[in-house]
């Protein structure tokens, strides 16, 4: 069985990869929301279960980091988010982050100044080099989630749980797909986008598939802060029939 995808409305995809939705938001808004919703929802929704929750996002100016901050803020959490570039801290503030933090490799001391007991939850998108420091930022009985690896370092050498994990702090991981985003939750996200209550930042839009190499180059060299979108225009003569 096949279905349409909101990000690629003229293509057919296996139905198991498609989440049904009412077209509350325009295609322009649905497109960026589709690919960035599942991961942030999977990593943020479980730890953020109450409006007073505090969340640290490591790798905050990545597209997933910005989407996670948007979702956490929308759910009423207080968000701390990091960037390695001082010039991007203002961007985080503009995107609704309560406490932008400069990431020098060690952010736990700065987090503990704001929250002496530690934050309730943390999402680490940088990878294993920063994970120990992220864990030290979390309170007892709080949760840290390993949700990505911008550093491209995925493994922990000579892992010793008692030495690696702070007492009472939970460590989880996430590497799911569209099936992990419930249809009802996705519809709530689209409705919030349509109502102007939630936005997923798009850094730039490229017109035409010939711009894909440029988009990849911009992504690989960290020139963007947010989602990169390639827009493909179909003529009636070349559009596939569904």
In spatial order, strands of the major sheet run 5-4-3-6-7-8
* Elements, N to C (H/E): EEHEHEHEHEHEHEHEHE
The total of beta strands comes to: 10
- Please count the helical segments: 8
Average pLDDT, to the nearest integer? 82
Low-confidence stretches: none
| Main CATH class of the domain at 38-178 | Alpha Beta
**Which range best describes the helical content: under 10%, 10-25%, 25-40%, 40-55%, 55-70% or over 70%?**
25-40%
- Rounded to an integer in angstroms, the radius of gyration calculated over CA atoms is 19 Å
| Terminus-to-terminus distance | 13 Å
**How is the CATH topology of the domain at 38-178 named?**
Rossmann fold
What best-fitting shape do the alpha-carbon axes yield?
Answer: globular
CATH architectural category of the domain at 38-178: 3-Layer(aba) Sandwich
Derived from helix and strand composition plus strand pairing, the structural class reads alpha/beta
Main pleated-sheet profile: 6 strands, parallel
Spell out the CATH superfamily of the domain at 38-178.
NAD(P)-binding Rossmann-like Domain
Could you explain how this protein is built, in words?
Helix content is 30%, strand content 21%. The chain has 242 residues and is of the alpha/beta class. The protein has a domain at 38-178: NAD(P)-binding Rossmann-like Domain (Rossmann fold, 3-Layer(aba) Sandwich), CATH 3.40.50. Helix 2 links the parallel strand 3 (54-58) and strand 4 (78-83). The longest helix has 18 residues, at 27-44.
């Amino acid at each position: 069985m096949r279905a349409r995808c909101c990000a690629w409305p003229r293509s057919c995809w296996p139905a198991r990869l498609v989440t049904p939705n009412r077209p509350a938001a325009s295609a322009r808004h649905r497109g960026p929301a589709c690919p960035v919703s599942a991961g942030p929802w999977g990593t943020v929704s479980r730890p953020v279960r109450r409006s007073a929750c505090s969340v640290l996002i490591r790798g905050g100016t990545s597209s997933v980091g910005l989407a996670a901050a948007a979702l956490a803020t929308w759910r009423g959490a207080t968000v701390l988010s990091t960037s390695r570039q001082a010039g991007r801290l203002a961007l985080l503030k503009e995107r609704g982050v309560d406490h932008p933090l400069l990431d020098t490799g060690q952010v736990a001391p700065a987090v503990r100044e704001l929250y002496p007991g530690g934050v309730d939850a943390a999402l680490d998108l940088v990878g294993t080099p920063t994970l120990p420091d992220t864990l030290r930022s979390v309170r007892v009985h709080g949760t840290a989630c390993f949700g990505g690896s911008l550093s491209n370092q995925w493994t922990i050498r000579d892992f010793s749980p008692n030495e690696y994990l702070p007492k009472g702090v939970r460590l989880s991981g996430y590497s799911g797909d569209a099936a992990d985003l419930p249809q009802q939750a996705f519809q709530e996200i689209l409705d919030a986008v349509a109502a102007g209550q939630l936005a997923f930042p798009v850094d730039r839009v490229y017109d035409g598939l010939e711009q894909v190499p440029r988009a990849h180059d911009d992504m690989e060299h960290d020139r963007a802060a947010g989602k990169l979108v390639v827009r493909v225009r179909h003529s009636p003569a070349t559009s596939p029939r569904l």
